[in-house]
Amino acid sequence: MAQFLREEEVVSADIIAIQEPWENPFQDNTHHPLKQTHELLYPVAAEMGGRARVCMFISKKMGEHTHLAHSRDCQEIRIKTESSRELRIVNVYNDQQQGAALRLLQDKLLPTREQKGVSYLVLGDFNLHHPAWGGGDTPHDAGAEDLLDLMETAGLDNWLTPGTITRDQAGSQSTIDLVLASYALREQIVVCEVDHSVHADSDHLPILTLLEINVPEAADPVKRRNWKAMDVGKFLTFASANLSVMRLPEEPTPREIDYAVNHLLDIVQQAAQASTPWAKPSAWARQGWTPECTEAIEASRRHFRQYIRTHSEEDWKEFTSVRNAKGRVIKKALKQGFRQWVRDTVDKGPRGLWKVSKWARMRDQSTSSNIPTLHSQEGDTPAVTNAIKRAPPDKAPGEDGIPNRVWKLLADNDRFVAVLTAIFDACMRTGYNPRHFQASITVTLRKGGPRDFRQPKSYRPVALLNTLGKILESIIATRIAWAVEEYGLLPKTHLGGRKGISVDHAIQLILDRVHYAWGRGKKVSMLLLDVAGAYDNVSHERLLNNIKQLRLGQFAPWIASFLRNRSTRIKLPGYLSDSFPTPTGIPQGSPISPILFLLFNAPLITACGLRTGIAKSAGFGWVDDVAVLVESESYYNNTITLEKILGKANRWARRHAAGFAPDKFELIHFTNRNENETAQGLAANDTTHIGSDIFDYATQHPEGNDQMPVQYNELSIQPTQSAKYLGVWLDKHLDFDTHRRRLLDKANGSLEALRAMTGSVWGASLVAMRKVYQAVVVPQMLYGISAWYCPAARPMPAWEMKRTVNEFTKVQRRAAILISGAFKSTSAAALNVELFITPVHLLMDQIIQESAIRIQTGATWAQPECLRRQRSPGEIKKGGWSPLEALRWKKDGILDPKGNVCDSRKAFVLAPWEARIPCAIDKDAEAARASHDKIEMESLQQAALDRTPTVLFFTDGSGYEGQVGASAVAPREGVFQRRYLGTSEESTVYVAELNGIEMAVAKFANQYRNNTRLIIFSDCQAAIQAVQKPKRSSGQLGP
Fold first, then answer.
1. Of 324, 356, 615, 793, which residue has the fewest beta carbons closer than 10 angstroms?
2. Rounded to whole angstroms, how far apart are CA atoms 90 and 75?
């Protein structure tokens, strides 16, 4: 089959029908080397009652078609022809003993009188002998008469000449492969014969059928250029020459903005046309194909033709020997080709390594306060440049086909940046988004995990937007995010998609609330909601209303323009639709969509927060996933409160034209193991009328129990033993046994997948595999560890702690053996030392401490209450320690060493439009001295001419005998400042270097006039880079 599907004549066919295809032993599919040209139609074994015995390949050039899998032995493709008729091609494998496929055909094929506008082409291996197709001396099989009756009923002709040999093995010849077609197709037949020029490497001979039928072809996919083959010099020369004459009016109209954008894109497209060739994907690329493969095929063909001429037993044996040798050659070549692909891809660096790793893991799968008025800021050149540099270079482009790497090349062109900044300024001032930015191409991506990929919900639509527009959207998204954080516009429990916030924050907030409620004797329940459709169902009107209510009205005109008049085209394999409007939703793939969705469903999170006389609740949002946590004196009160919250959520959905996915709702009643209540035992023994007559039960047992459901419309949401939120499985006792078990299963599965990347003598290198293990397997294996493994929070017996650690140590040991190729008996400790892998128990402690410090030094509004307030001993005894609480308040906790306070991190160090300080780092000491001498000479000349004065400061930080200090000196000005920062345990030399720069800036700001220039010299590159690109502070300990 491998050779057959690589034959040029086969690849050029529109339909390839195969019976008894090769079965992949590792996954439910077959060999598919034609991914560039054909789509494989292979039914799922679980639904067919076994592995498919027929499959079909259909060309991606074919237009609209429908695929039907009737059984594992029968498939059908329905194709609309240009004459408005329908051609139905049926591929059959008929088991001679059972005859199931033949009986199925009798039910599926329409009688002649009912075939209005329908024609059939039935082909396959029928395993039946009869003179009507085998010739005069052919024996009669019993089932052959049934086939003849079917041919008469359905009006089918046999197109092969009677007596045509279709199976030839060791001198045994027969006609059992047939091509049957409707009478209406007689005029369209061109040829139907055995094609001896194509060798199928099988005892069945390939049959060529050619019809003269006009079938609408699929729309040509968007052509793309081979940007990696660009002549950069030619591109920049052409672009620079044309950009120099481009001008934009001071107060442009929307029409003039559109003209400017189109003119800019025309320049870029013409520059690309002059410098960049079109990509030419080859349909004949053969990974690993060697001249030996070609020679082996030619030898096999020669011996086969010799056997066809003589049909002697000696020639047959010679042919089978050569054929088997050919199979071994091709198999070896393809294996070596795959291994070479792994080596070459890994050698390309981290992106290549990730590509191979992803392939290995995915091969089994065929985010009312008094607020002052906010003022918008015009675009500035650094913001535009930074946005371009942040954009990934090789992300899929939009309809214009221009990738980000083109804008990155032009980002160093001052004229281009000036023109683009002027256009973006005009867009923000006028509240207008250019029409070119409104068009997109929508592609579908498979969602993760095992799914039924015939269902539309198993795919995620992603909009491929024009990359220039995404740069503008990125700039505005950053400014909205800054305003949201600066003025606290979102609920504090709306966590997803916000800077500096991780899943650990959300899980720790939930755990903290549960343990806090347990400590006061409360019952806690959690309901998980899911907003259906999310981005696709966003109401533009309600989104704009929410934006105005949050005092973000200055962004509303541009956002309204961004949302209006959008259009897209659907792109599927071999198909590209016409453009059509998208009046609702926000494009999934736009940089601004995440923050817009947070603004859209912020009222939902607020609505989930409820405080009544009997209960209180809080809603935790992570994009479209919402967790509602309720605490009260009883589970009955919790369920009543949750039903009220569902009512409020429904009102939000109606107002916002949104909806929920009730099938994804999950309910869990958390149970405190430290309590011993009769109501807990009641649940196991008495569940009378809980689901059907909840009020009668409440009368008898007002406290309720942990088996009570929640009613949502006509749906009864039953409680579960464990629920998954943000990838973490929370069980009712918060033991996390389910979560640990699933982590181990996932890690072991990833290791098995990664075996495809390497072997003892081939594949990715040791260093590369170590990187994959640390970047892929370790995060999977220890996901959410700060919640489920914290010995400080839950006293664990030594044997239990050792067992937990040993389970994960075994996974790491397997990984180390796979990486190193060591013997299976090699000890884990020795492997860790040789591979420089951190032992699992130390790695666990490290990740827990890093997560805890990251939360403590992060945004204060996202910190659990336990970090600010200590509970009483009685509450702790009753409710147990939460993980962060134990690390904060226990004697050996890591979050409060020696009473020091950690620096707090802000989401944004500077506002997005604030200018950064220009910085320069010379390549070596010699160049630095030359730069200093030049600057000093220029400053002296400026002073002599009485022009803009320049002040030169020299800063330094140092550590000596355990003490750390900083200094700032301006010799010509007579300024000498020093600052003591404490011991080396309290500060670092790096902090001292930054303190020196800060001292120089403060002295300059207080003492010198506005028209004076300041230049600071520092010998610390890290400090200069921190000033040049200010980021969120490190969260270090401070005195």
1. 324
2. 6
CB neighbour list of residue 466: distance below 8 Å, 6 or more residues apart: 397, 398, 399, 400, 402, 436, 437, 439, 440
Whole-number pLDDT of residue 889: 86
The residue behind tokens 């409820």 is 610
Q: Kindly compute the dihedral angle of the four CA atoms of residues 139, 144, 148, 150, in this order, to the nearest 10 degrees.
A: -170
* Residue 657: φ, ψ to 5°: 55, 40
Per-residue HEC secondary structure of 818-872 comes to HHHCCCCCCCHHHHHHHHCCCCHHHHHHHHHHHHHHHHHCCCHHHCCHHHCCCCC
What confidence tens digit (pLDDT) does each residue in 930-962 have?
999 998 888 888 777 767 788 899 999 999 888
Chain mean position to CA 181: 46
Query: Tokens 């355990």 — which residue?
Result: 962
Residue keyed to tokens 């805890």? 852
| Cα 1015 to Cα 914: distance, rounded to the nearest angstrom | 19
Cβ distance 129 to 140 under 8 Å? yes
pLDDT for the residue numbered 371: 34
User: What amino acid is encoded at 1002 in this protein?
Assistant: A
Looking up tokens 């000498």, which residue turns up? 976
Contacts from 593-597 at CB under 8 Å and sequence distance 24+? 593/535, 594/367, 594/477, 594/497, 594/623, 595/477, 595/480, 595/481, 595/484, 595/497, 596/538, 596/543, 596/559, 597/497, 597/534, 597/535, 597/538, 597/623, 597/624
415 CB-side CA count, 13 A: 13
Residue 521's CB: how many other CB atoms inside 10 A? 13
Q: Alpha-carbon distance 320 to 302, whole Å?
A: 12
Round to the nearest angstrom and report the end-to-end CA distance of the chain.
72
Closest CA to 94 of 14, 189, 19: 19
Place of tokens 């099988």: 202
- Helix H or strand E segment including 679: helix 678-685
Residue that the structure tokens 């077959």 belong to: 30
- 907 DSSP 8-state letter: S
Residue 1020 DSSP class = -
979: tokens are: 């600052």
**Residue whose token pair is 């071999």:** 574
H helices within 27-138, ranges in order? Answer: 45-48, 100-108, 131-134
Q: Are strands 950-960 and 1013-1017 parallel, antiparallel or unpaired?
A: parallel
- CB-based contacts of 191, cutoff 8 Å, min separation 6: 208, 209, 210
Interval 378-409: pLDDT, tens: 445 678 888 898 888 888 898 888 999 999 99
Query: Where do runs of H (alpha helix) occur along 458-592?
Result: 467-487, 503-519, 540-549, 556-563
What's the average model confidence in pLDDT over 50-70? 86
Question: Could you tell me the two tokens for 670?
Answer: 């958390």
Which helix (H) or strand (E) segment holds residue 425: the answer is: helix 414-430
Helix/strand/coil for 290: coil
Residue type, 413: N
| Cβ–Cβ under 8 Å, residues 905 and 1035 | yes
Q: Among residues 403, 685, 649, 617, which one has the least CA distance to residue 532?
A: 649
Tell which residue, 45, 195, 46, has the closest CA to residue 55.
45
Residue 653 · residue 659 · CB < 8 Å:
yes
According to DSSP, residue 190 is labeled: E
C-alpha span between 358 and 348 (Å, rounded): 15
Task: Tell me if 949 sits within 8 A of 970, measured CB to CB.
Answer: no
More confident residue, 941 or 631: 631
- pTM (2 decimals)? 0.76
- From residue 45, how far is each of 26, 38, 52 by CA, in Å? 13, 21, 6
- For the chain, percent helix, then strand, then coil, each to nearest 5? 45, 20, 35
